[in-house]
């Protein structure tokens, strides 16, 4: 159970995230979000006279017969989306060699996306998961609702700190009845991932934010240390001065990274790489610009 001091510290972080996310959305982010994702369909808007180049399939023959000249149906895009943030709060999410942990980076990205969605009239929901789904908050609107989601990301404490992207994907496939926009936010240190992600991507528009820490990619020279897996609690004595051990560590990390990247690409899941050392906004900008180009292509 959290102490009063811990709760106050957590709420202070939420308020800071709110201010930062609102500023980012106001200054540059909301327009890119709006142009990057389609609504759920088209709603009838009005009739107008047929013009050269209009699609014949939109001609309304009843109105055409009454007016003695061709008229077509006009449509407008139904903008409202359901944005669902699926956030990994497993043991490895609390690691951070810089000022922020991976969990804090995830919460910041979720806040920016959430405020962008709300400004565009969309609903925002949350799935917090680790070894299993921990909490699901159905999509809703309003600042108070979104701040609750950010708070849940920061305070969630799983009973089992392992990671199961598969369990999260299966839960979303079973639970989300309406086609939704899903952001899977994780370090993806999980197996298996290919089939579950493929199933999720077939049913919902799925994107991935992959969060890492620089020290995870390359083992520093620090002598003999005990490395503890935050998801299993197991410790291993390692001589980090050994070039062979550092090379093997780097090779395995690189292979894991390439495997996840290949799985995401194979299933058409666009990805942004975030880390605890650099600002997340440029990577999010790049991702949304890519989506916008796809939409207008």
From TrEMBL:
<dbReference type="Pfam" id="PF01882">
    <property type="entry name" value="DUF58"/>
</dbReference>
<feature type="domain" description="DUF58">
    <location>
        <begin position="46"/>
        <end position="258"/>
    </location>
</feature>
<dbReference type="InterPro" id="IPR002881">
    <property type="entry name" value="DUF58"/>
</dbReference>
<protein>
    <submittedName>
        <fullName>DUF58 domain-containing protein</fullName>
    </submittedName>
</protein>
<dbReference type="InterPro" id="IPR036465">
    <property type="entry name" value="vWFA_dom_sf"/>
</dbReference>
């Amino acid at each position: 159970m959290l102490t009063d001091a811990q709760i106050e510290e957590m709420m202070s972080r939420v308020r800071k995230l709110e201010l930062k996310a609102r500023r980012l959305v106001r200054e540059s982010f909301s327009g890119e979000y709006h142009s990057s994702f389609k609504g759920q369909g088209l709603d009838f808007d009005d009739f107008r006279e047929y013009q050269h180049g209009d699609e014949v399939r939109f001609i309304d023959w009843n109105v055409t017969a009454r007016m003695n000249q061709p008229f077509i149906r006009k449509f407008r895009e139904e903008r409202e989306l359901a944005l669902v943030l699926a956030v990994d709060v497993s043991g490895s999410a609390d690691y951070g060699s810089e000022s922020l942990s991976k969990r804090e980076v995830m919460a910041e990205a979720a806040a920016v996306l959430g405020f962008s969605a709300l400004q565009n009239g969309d609903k925002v929901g949350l799935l917090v998961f680790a070894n299993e789904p921990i909490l699901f908050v159905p999509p809703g609107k309003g600042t108070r609702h979104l701040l609750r989601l950010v708070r849940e990301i920061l305070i969630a404490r799983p009973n089992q700190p392992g990671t199961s992207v598969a369990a999260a994907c299966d839960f979303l496939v079973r639970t989300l009845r309406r086609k939704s926009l899903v952001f899977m936010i994780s370090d993806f240190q999980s197996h298996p991932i290919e089939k579950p992600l493929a199933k999720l991507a077939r049913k919902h528009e799925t994107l991935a934010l992959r969060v890492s820490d620089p020290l995870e990619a390359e083992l520093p020279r620090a002598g003999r240390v005990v490395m503890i897996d935050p998801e299993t609690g197991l410790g291993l004595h390692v001589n980090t001065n050994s070039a062979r051990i550092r090379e093997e560590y780097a090779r395995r990390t690189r292979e894991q990274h390439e495997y996840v990247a290949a799985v995401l690409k194979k299933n058409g899941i666009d990805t942004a790489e975030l880390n605890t050392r650099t600002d997340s906004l440029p990577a999010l900008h790049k991702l949304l610009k890519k989506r916008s180009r796809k939409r207008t292509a």
